[in-house]
Write a structure and sequence with these properties.
Blueprint (H helix, E strand, L loop, with lengths): L6 H7 L11 H13 L1 H11 L2 H12 L6 H15 L5 H7 L5 H15 L3 H7 L4 H18 L3
Helix pairs in contact: 7-9, 8-9
């Protein structure tokens, strides 16, 4: 933790990608050289304090969500709900139509996304299809629309 933030929180607040480096090249080289100078001591200390069973138990608990800070749980829940989006209304499902009619369905899905702010995941769920399939149809539909407009 630096500046009171974990790396992921810092990246999120500053709009940086997940793989964006947070340490400059010169600082990184200095840290690497410092590590190389005391590598043997650091590895000996690690071996002395290492407890694989304790680490494994903690790791399994983290996978299950045990021990997460309440703020992390709340943020993950909020992100998952936002990603899923709201359920489609009966009228929106009716507007979407049958996914067998690909062009009509795709046009309706694009309209729902652009005009109603519906998520692809919600559309896929309402259409009883996988989100990847819905996303692919919508991407292709948008591309065809752009080509018609000469873009």
């Amino acid at each position: 933790m630096t500046h009171g933030l974990y790396a992921a929180e810092y990246r999120s607040q500053h709009g940086l990608g997940r793989s964006a480096r947070l340490v400059g090249e010169q600082a990184r080289q200095a840290m690497r050289q410092g590590y190389e100078r005391r590598k043997d001591e650091a590895l000996a200390d690690l071996a002395k304090h290492r407890d694989p069973d304790k680490a494994r138990a903690k790791s399994v608990g983290a996978i299950r969500g045990e021990g997460w800070r309440p703020a992390v749980v709340a943020k993950r829940t909020q992100m998952n709900q936002a990603r899923a989006g709201r359920d489609l209304t009966t009228d929106e499902v009716s507007h979407l139509g049958d996914p067998v009619h690909v062009r009509a369905w795709t046009g309706a899905a694009i309209w729902l996304i652009d005009e109603r702010g519906v998520t692809i995941r919600a559309i896929a769920e309402a259409s009883d299809m996988r989100p990847g399939t819905a996303e692919q149809r919508i991407r292709r539909g948008r591309k065809e629309d752009w080509e018609k407009r000469g873009m």
